[in-house]
Design goal:
By secondary structure, the chain is an all-alpha fold. It has a domain of about 240 residues: MetI-like fold, CATH 1.10.3720.10. The chain contains 15 helices and no strands. α5 packs across α9, α7 crosses α9 and α14 runs antiparallel to α15. The N and C termini lie far apart (about 95 Å). The N terminus is likely disordered.
């Protein structure tokens, strides 16, 4: 009887607000060894997810831009290079590697390659040399710094096509002012045709490019010069270095990244030259100033009207550019980076 009375005795009342005791309370507790996320940890995960989503939202327009305007066109050009693809007839099926063979066997292929390389070497040497000279001049000058910087940089604001049309008029022996001026000065006896000879057409185009882009490369190199600490030059003077020693052993090594950037941009732009030669010379005289890109245009839209061969030549140019840029990047590295 005592046992039955003890078992039927009700449990003591639980105070208001206190946690219940006994088996009912133990059922809601997690087993030992199980990790639970605290409220602060859950709150910390939400900002990270929102920041990640915000980063993807910022990068999405650029990714779409690269995908639509670079990846898809490259894939399309790759398909065209392996297909029989006339301009007006469309895709007629795969004919790899006939397009690449026809591109290399084109009668203007090697002439255009030699001329493009020749033009690239001349333009790169002149632009980098004059750009560095102008940058040093503006950097050292104190009285005329603003005037020199503005006057050298102004041509860079003009578009290349507009500048080419301007120089086409200046070079014209009929309406241009240069040829009559030379006649009045007694330097020539008859009107000069600047674009009438292969060498004249080349150097006239080089002069246009130097006038147009020298200020741009001056600006890039001037930024590099301003990034060199002044204490380095003070230390060189204290060691007894003259101007040439300071330039060769201090300025040039520290200017290596800017020179590498300018060289890569100049070489790439010169190898892809098209506007200036198409407007000034149309590849003449006697097809002596045809660049590789102009040859691609002629194959695709003039004469052959063959997009497949033009695409194959474009793939060849793209591969050459990648190889040249890789060689330049590795060659312009600092010794400690190698």
């Amino acid at each position: 009887m005592s046992v039955q009375s003890a078992s039927s005795t009700p449990p003591p009342p639980v105070p208001h607000g206190a946690a219940p005791r006994g088996p009912a309370a133990s059922d809601d507790r997690p087993p030992r060894g199980t990790a639970t996320a605290s409220p602060s940890t859950r709150r910390g995960r939400r900002p990270r997810r929102s920041q990640s989503a915000r980063g993807w939202a910022y990068a999405a327009p650029t990714a779409v831009f690269v995908l639509v305007l670079f990846i898809f066109p490259v894939l399309l050009v790759g398909q065209m290079s392996a297909s029989d693809w006339p301009l007006l007839a469309g895709n007629r099926g795969v004919n790899f590697p006939d397009n690449f063979r026809d591109a290399v066997e084109n009668r203007f292929f090697w002439d255009s390659v030699v001329f493009t390389v020749k033009y690239t070497v001349i333009a790169t040497v002149l632009l980098i040399g004059l750009g560095l000279g102008f940058a040093l001049l503006v950097q050292e000058s104190s009285r005329w710094k603003s005037f020199l910087r503005t006057s050298i940089l102004v041509p860079s604001a003009l578009g290349l096509a507009s500048a080419s049309l301007l120089f086409y008029a200046l070079y014209s022996p009929q309406v241009g002012p240069i040829s009559p001026l030379l006649e009045r000065l007694g330097l020539v006896d008859e009107p000069v045709s600047f674009l009438g000879t292969p060498e004249g057409a080349l150097w006239s185009t080089v002069f246009l490019i130097v006038w147009r882009f020298a200020g741009f490369y001056m600006l890039l190199l001037m930024v590099g010069l301003q990034g060199i600490p002044h204490e380095v030059y003070e230390a060189a003077r204290m060691d007894g270095a003259n101007r040439w020693q300071t330039f060769g052993r201090v300025t040039l090594p520290l200017l290596r990244p800017s020179l590498a950037l300018c060289t890569i941009m100049c070489v790439t732009g010169s190898l892809l030259a098209f506007d200036q030669f198409y407007i000034l010379t149309k590849g003449g005289p006697d097809n002596s100033t045809i660049t590789v890109v102009q040859l691609i245009y002629n194959i695709a839209f003039q004469g052959q009207n063959d997009l497949g061969v033009a695409a194959a030549l474009s793939i060849i140019v793209l591969a050459a550019l990648v190889i040249i840029n890789v060689v330049q990047v590795r060659g312009m590295r600092a010794p400690e980076e190698k």
